[in-house]
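Weekly modeling sync, notes
Attendees: S.R. (lead), two postdocs, one rotation student

Agenda item 3: backlog of single-chain predictions. S.R. asked that every request posted to the team notebook include the full sequence so nobody has to chase files. The rotation student volunteered to paste the first one in as an example of the format we agreed on. Action items at the bottom.

Example entry:
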Amino acid sequence: MSIYGDYIKSVIRTVPDWPQPGVNFRDITPLLQNSAAFRKLIDSFVHRYQEMDLDAIAAIDARGFIIGAPLAYELGCSFVPVRKKGKLPFRTISETYTLEYGQSEVELHADAFQHGDRILLVDDLIATGGTMCAAAKLITRSGGHVVETATIIDLPELAGSDKIREAGFGVFAVCSFTEDE
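Predicted structure, as returned to the notebook:
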């Protein structure tokens, strides 16, 4: 957890029973609307990664972009979007992953990375880990090396962070929530 983890967590809104009964949705919009909290959020990532030799920040469509772009700027890295299928205009490579009710796919421009590039992969939240694992595999297939995966929120009870670690990728979360929080 980050030095600002408790503060960041206190700014995130929990919306009970959305999008369906029994689900506690973790809403980051209050965090984004609070300029001091948003600065502390980005600073949490900058402080963790400023001494690492990174070539790029890869961010997952779409909320990962909110973190990835300012982080890439602050760290002097390139920014690479990992998009949902059909959203990138150039030649792509893709990775399919399983959702609770079906499958989805993420894509990356085929020329996004050079062999051996050191990549930080970011998103807003880890739930079941499917999207993050698919994006990390995609980066690896493209020749990049995923240094770590990073997120604002981890939901450890859903075991996504365990799944990502089992796939061989490190995980950093600014904060985490249990289901009853």
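Discussion: group reviewed the output briefly. The first helix runs from residue 5 to 11.
Action items: rotation student to repeat for the remaining queue; S.R. to check formatting next week.
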